[in-house]
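queue> holo job accepted (NAP)
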Amino acid sequence: MSTILPSVAILGTGNMGGAILRGLLAPGIEAESIRVTTRSAASAHTLRASGVEAKSLEEDSDANAWALETARLVVLGVKPYQIVELLGEISSQAHPDAVMVSVAAGITIPTMEKVWPGALVRAMPNTPSGVGKGVTGMSIGTTVSPEQSREVENLFGTVGEVLVIAEEQINALSSLSGSGPAYVYFFMEKFLEVAGELGFSPDQAEVMIRGTFVGALALLEQSGQAPHELREAVTSPQGTTEAALNVYAAADLPSIIRQASAAAIARAQELAGD
Ligand SMILES: NC(=O)c1ccc[n+]([C@@H]2O[C@H](COP(=O)([O-])OP(=O)(O)OC[C@H]3O[C@@H](n4cnc5c(N)ncnc54)[C@H](OP(=O)(O)O)[C@@H]3O)[C@@H](O)[C@H]2O)c1
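queue> job finished
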């Protein structure tokens, strides 16, 4: 079954905007039209070469207005510090019924609604969105209709799973799923280091560690079991895994995870000037 979306514009098609664009171009997704913009001519050229309607501000200072002509869903994929200025610039060009979708970290709905009084959604996707396995938290602004909310859910549904949450929770979500991929890679890096210290070659370490993470997650997906059940299945009483897990418990890893999340939330509040 196809997902049908209205006309979409992506203003700022870099890492995150590009990930959303790839989701929109996937089989089974039908958007009425897609127009995207970038700052530099080079990035717009690359996008056009892949068959996408793209313009850059460098080539045409009205590129964003062109993308907005038909758009009812507008993804703002520029850096957080550019969001308010961009919204101010385009507020008179966008269709009054268009929904603005910001993926900018730290810029709140009330801040954006001061310059765009229409429908607005604040979303926090994560990097696996680039391969269609993302998790996006989205919070809806004060004037978003249920239909518009569903359309934005469908938009992020093209790059993974979506949670609709209150804006008060968006920093907490960001500290888990937003930053989460970095935590996973950090653990992997540390395991790779230990594998080297235990005498394995880099190639062997890579097979062991990448294979174990990918395999453990595939087992989780396919077995339908909860993480604690799968952990218990590996952990024989008084066995080797239990000995290792006791070290994590003694170091109070859960408390470290909690503190790390709290630090990310505090930093997000600081960046937002809360
Ligand atoms: N990367 C992530 O993991 C991630 C996760 C969650 C949220 N986000 C959010 O996503 C947003 C973008 O981050 P990113 O990492 O994707 O940045 P990025 O790769 O630098 O992309 C920014 C894009 O905006 C374009 N641009 C700059 N000014 C513009 C303007 N006035 N009009 C139209 N396009 C313009 C740039 O064009 P050029 O390429 O030509 O310079 C580039 O394509 C940020 O707000 C960030 O908070 C990112």
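queue> The first helix runs from residue 15 to 24.
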